[in-house]
Amino acid sequence: xxxxxxxxxxxxxxxxxxxxxxxxxxxxxxxxxxxxxxxxxxxxxxxxxxxxxxxxxxxxxxxxxxxxxxxxxxxxxxxxxxxxxxxxxxxxxxxxxxxxxxxxxxxxxxxxxxxxxxxxxxxxxxxxxxxxxxxxxxxxxxxxxxxxxxxxxxxxxxxxxxxxxxxxxxxxxxxxxxxxxxxxxxxxxxxxxxxxxxxxxxxxxxxxxxxxxxxxxxxxxxxxxxxxxxxxxxxxxxxxxxxxxxxxxxxxxxxxxxxxxxxxxxxxxxxxxxxxxxxx
Length: 280
Ligand code: NAP
Hints:
By secondary structure, this protein is α/β, with parallel strands linked by helices. The protein is built from ten helices and eleven strands. The chain has helices at 6-26, 42-58, 72-84, 103-107, 121-128, 137-148, 168-177, 192-196, 242-245, 259-279; strands at residues 2-3, 32-37, 61-66, 90-93, 157-161, 181-185, 201-204, 222-225, 229-230, 236-237, 251-252. The longest helix is centred in the N-terminal third of the chain and has 21 residues, at 6-26. It binds NADP nicotinamide-adenine-dinucleotide phosphate (NAP). The site of NADP nicotinamide-adenine-dinucleotide phosphate has 25 residues, from helix 10.
C-alpha cells in the first residue's frame, strides 16, 4: 500500500494560492479570512494556530475573533458583522459551538459569498443543485486528493462513511458530480464491511479510531481517511487501521499528513477566490 502525501499536495496548492494572493495584493486587495472562535477548547486553539501559520505562508490575512462562552445571539451577531465588513472576504466559525446551537443555524449568519467553509445551508443546497458555491473545505479536500492522484472517478464505486453536513454529505455530492456511483453509509448501515468491500474508493469520515480494517477493503482500493481521533498520548489517529489494511489497499491518506494539510490549504484557496470575486 502506498501512502498519499497530503503535505506535498498542500504545498503544491499553496504555491498556486500564493501567486493568486500576491496578484490580488498588487491590485490593492488583501485577501482576508476571519476565524471566529467561540470556545477556549485547546484542540480548537491548536487547529486555529495551524490555520494562522498556513495563512501567513501564502499571504492571506488571518483575523481571529476569539469569544469567551458567547450566547448563540452574541455569536451570530459577530458573524452578521463580519458578513457586512468589506475588509473581510472569508468567514469561518470553529466548533464547539455554544450549548444548543447547530452549525447550520449559526452558518446561516455567514453570507454565502464569504462562506469559504460551506457552513451556510444555502451553500450545501447550491452544491446539491450543481451550482457554483464553496463546498466545505474538508469535503473539497477529499475530491482534490483523488484528482491529484489522477483517478478517473467516472463510473467508479465510491463508498462514503459518514453523512454530516460538513464532511460526508458534501463529499458525496462532489463525488456524484464527478460521475462516481456513490453509496453513503452511516451508523444505521447494515453489513458495513461488506458494503465498503465493494468500493473502488473508500472515504471514511466517522470519528471512530481505527474502525476500518482489512475486511472493509476491496483489493487495490484507494482509501481516504478523514477521521481525526485524539489518542491518550496527545497524538492523532484516523478512522482507518493502516496496518490492518496495508496488505489489501492500493493507497491511503495517512493521519496526520493526509486530508488535514489539503483541507487547510483549500480554505486559503477559497478565501483568495472569494476575495477575487468580491474585488472584481
Ligand atoms: P460527525 O458529525 O460526528 O458525523 C459522523 C458520521 O459517522 C455520522 O454520519 C454517523 O452516522 C457516522 N457513524 C458514526 N458511527 C458509525 C459507525 N459505527 N458506522 C458507520 N457510520 C458511523 O463527524 P464529522 O464532523 O462528519 O467528522 C467526521 C470525522 O472527520 C471526525 O473524526 C472529525 O474529527 C474529522 N474531520 C476531519 C477534518 C480534517 O480536516 N481532516 C475536518 C473535519 C472533520 P449517523 O449520521 O447515523 O449518526
